[in-house]
């Protein structure tokens, strides 16, 4: 099982089993830090394989100081919570996972949402802009571990 995380206040968490079926989705928008920590705890419990693919992103020009600080706080909380649950963290750049998953977004989350819905039509109504990236990051990680393209 693989945990994928799209960090940030408009990110999400997803856990996939080895067959690529979603077991857990969590939208980080409008959640408190305590709620995000609980979500990581639940996701880590499911991701018994012990691997988390975490999108490696940083400051986005135009976010301003407050936005950058908030992003950093959420990213740090997620990273620390994953490590606290003894999962291996593998950082992955957006261009790498997006290229492999055939959804280069250019920052437009709708692109990844449509791609995720095409891969998981049975849960398409539950896929949001925020959880789509997490699903695709987890799927990228699953394919890496299994040696799939």
How would you describe the overall organization of this protein?
The chain contains 5 helices and 5 strands, in the order E-E-E-H-E-H-E-H-H-H. By secondary structure, it is α/β, with parallel strands linked by helices. A 5-stranded mixed sheet has the order 3-2-1-4-5. Helix 1 packs parallel to helix 2 and helix 4 crosses helix 5. The protein is globular and about 40 Å long. It starts with a strand and ends with a helix.
List the helices and strands and how they pair.
Elements: E1 2-6, E2 12-16, E3 22-27, H1 33-46, E4 51-55, H2 64-84, E5 88-92, H3 94-100, H4 109-119, H5 129-146
Parallel strand pairs: 1-4, 4-5
Antiparallel strand pairs: 1-2, 2-3
Helix pairs in contact: 1-2, 4-5
Descriptive key words:
single chain, 149 residues, alpha/beta, 5-stranded mixed β-sheet, 5 helices, 48% helix
Short note summarizing the structure:
The chain is α/β, with parallel strands linked by helices.
Largest sheet: 5 strands, mixed
Mean pLDDT: 87
Uncertain segments: none
Main sheet strand line-up: 3-2-1-4-5
How many individual β-strands?
5
Number of helices: 5
Helix content: 40-55%
- Rough outline: globular
């Amino acid at each position: 099982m693989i945990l994928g995380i799209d960090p940030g206040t408009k990110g999400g968490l997803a856990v996939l089993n080895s067959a690529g079926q979603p077991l857990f989705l969590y939208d980080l928008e409008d959640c408190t830090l305590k709620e995000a920590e609980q979500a990581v705890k639940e996701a880590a419990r499911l991701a018994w394989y012990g691997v988390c693919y975490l999108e490696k992103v940083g400051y986005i020009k135009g976010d301003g100081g407050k936005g950058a600080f908030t992003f950093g706080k959420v990213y740090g909380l997620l990273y620390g919570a994953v490590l606290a649950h003894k999962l291996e963290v593998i950082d992955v750049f957006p261009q790498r996972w997006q290229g492999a998953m055939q959804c280069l977004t250019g920052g437009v989350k709708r692109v990844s949402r449509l791609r995720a819905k095409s891969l998981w039509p049975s849960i398409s109504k539950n896929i949001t802009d925020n959880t789509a990236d997490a699903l695709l990051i987890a799927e990228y990680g699953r394919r890496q571990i299994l040696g799939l393209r």
